[in-house]
Structures are given as structure tokens and as C-alpha cells.
Automatic annotation (TrEMBL):
A GO MF term: hydrolase activity
Lineage of the organism: Bacteria, Bacillati, Actinomycetota, Actinomycetes, Micrococcales
Keywords of this entry: Hydrolase
Record keyword Hydrolase present: yes
InterPro entries named among the record's database cross-references: Metallo-B-lactamas, RibonucZ/Hydroxyglut_hydro, UPF0173_UPF0282_UlaG_hydrolase
SMART domains reported in the protein's UniProt record: Lactamase_B (SM00849)
Metallo-beta-lactamase domain ranges (all copies): 7-173
Annotated Pfam families: Lactamase_B_3
Annotated organism of origin: Agromyces fucosus
UniProt name for this protein: MBL fold metallo-hydrolase
Lineage top rank: taxon: Bacteria
Length: 211
């Protein structure tokens, strides 16, 4: 499989010519070349993780693409055929096996309601928690590690990476950071990954990782 990191929180995973998109939101360059997409996973309803425009582009190129998300996503994206999933569900689509974990977004502030959020494990290898620090409790080969967000501080992300102990990790959710901020978070997340004997790969948008 190959992961291509897109801007902010978006990823595309390719296997055997098929593609899986995860969290194509408003901080991600418009996705115009999505031929071969069999599925889209949206971890939660915030628009930095999905927009109607991004989903429409993907569906126009791939009319049979399946879209998965928690109940909050299904409600927010009611104009799209979202298949509702919850923690513990396992779905097979094309060459991808999707396992879902968690259920709730990390707390941003007590004044802001906590919404649905699901982490996803792809082919028992790649784990992406969305906007949460949900630990899947299973071996993780590649972890998409959050680098910066209103709902986190870097010490929490470091503890999360240490607990997951992936073989490899790369940054996600970092469009809110300056170049200096990205360098700082990369250094901290690299340290955390190395505590479990793993390798940190500071991917930039458009760069890939094979696994």
C-alpha cells in the first residue's frame, strides 16, 4: 500500500489500483484527480475534515464510491449517501479493511459541544484517530500523528504516540502551524516515535510512504 499525505488532515491510500480517501476538508487543495476511489472515510463533521465540494468532486469521478462516517457526519452530510459506522464496526470495501475506534471528538473547550468522531485502522496497518487521542489497543505499523490543533497540546500528542508505539509515524492536522511550528512539532513527535523504537517520517503534502 501507499499513503499520500494531502494538506492538513487528508490522506489517500492506494492498494491494487484502488484508492481510499480520508478526511478531504477545506484546507486541502481541491481533489480533481480521484479516479479509482472506492471509499471515503470522514472521521467527524468539522469542515476541515470534509466539505460538500470535495465529496462532490470525488463522487463525480467515482459514482459508486462508498462514504463512511459516524452519525454526526451522516446528519451533516445528509445530501450524500453516508453509511453510518460506529466504534467496533469492521467494513470491507475493495482491497481495504476498515476498523473503527473511539466515538467522541477531543474536548476543545467546555463551551463547545463534543461531537462524534471515529478513528480508523486501514488493513490492520495504518491508524488515523481523527480529532482524538483514541488508542486502538492493537499493533500499528503506521500512525498519522496530530501535530497541531485547537483541541490538543504537543505534550498530549507525544504521550499518544508513545502509547500507540507505531513502527512509523508521520504528521497530520498541521495547517494551523507556521513553518517554525511544524519544525517544533516534528521534533517532538520524532522523539515520541523513537521511544518505542519507531521511525518518524516528516511527510509534506504530496509526499508518499509505502508500507
Amino acid at each position: 500500500m501507499r499513503i499520500t499525505k494531502l494538506e492538513h488532515a487528508a490522506l489517500v491510500v492506494e492498494d491494487s489500483g484502488d484508492k481510499l480517501y480520508i478526511d478531504p476538508g477545506k484546507f486541502t487543495t481541491p481533489i480533481t484527480e480521484s479516479s479509482g476511489a472506492v471509499a471515503v472515510v470522514i472521521t467527524h463533521q468539522h469542515d476541515d475534515h470534509w466539505t460538500p465540494e470535495q465529496l462532490t468532486r470525488i463522487r463525480e469521478a467515482n459514482p459508486d464510491v462508498r462514504i463512511f462516517g459516524p452519525a454526526g457526519v451522516a446528519a451533516a452530510a445528509a445530501d450524500f449517501p453516508v453509511e453510518t459506522v460506529q466504534s467496533g464496526d469492521v467494513v470491507a470495501v475493495g482491497p481495504f479493511r476498515l476498523r473503527f475506534f473511539g466515538g467522541r471528538h477531543a474536548v476543545i473547550h467546555p463551551s463547545i459541544p463534543v461531537i462524534d468522531n471515529l478513528g480508523v485502522l486501514v488493513n490492520d496497518a495504518l491508524y488515523y484517530g481523527g480529532d482524538s487521542f483514541t488508542v486502538p489497543g492493537v499493533p500499528v505499523e503506521v500512525l498519522a500523528a496530530p501535530a497541531g490543533a485547537p483541541w490538543m497540546k504537543i505534550s498530549e500528542a507525544m504521550d499518544y504516540v508513545v502509547e500507540v508505539a507505531p513502527r512509523r509515524a508521520f504528521p497530520t492536522h498541521e495547517m494551523v502551524l507556521s513553518r517554525a511550528g511544524k519544525a517544533l512539532s516534528n521534533a517532538r513527535l520524532a522523539w515520541a516515535t523513537e521511544q518505542g523504537g519507531g521511525e518518524y517520517v516528516p511527510l509534506e503534502p504530496g509526499e508518499t510512504l509505502d508500507f
